[in-house]
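A favour, since you know our structure tokens better than I do. Would you make up a two-line entry for one protein for me to read? Write everything out right here, beneath this request.
=====
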Amino acid sequence: MTGLILPPKMTAQERRGFRIACACFATMGRQMAREPSVAGPDQQHLITDAVRGQALMLMTVAAALDRTLGRSG
């Protein structure tokens, strides 16, 4: 296993774009939690704990990335 490779220090504009991308992923997670069909046509019949678990993971990862990389200046 290789070590963690962090990106070089981001400019303010790059950091803003990164944070917007994190917010988009978090929004997708919230949408999946409410209506799993946003995950794709093959998921439309699934309103299950598994899809909600995936949605929670997506929201959690987005928040963690925003907190650790998006706010580092």
Remarks:
- The chain has a mean pLDDT of 81.
- The longest helix spans residues 12-34.
- Residues 36 and 46 are 7 Å apart (CA to CA).
- Helices lie at 12-34, 49-70.
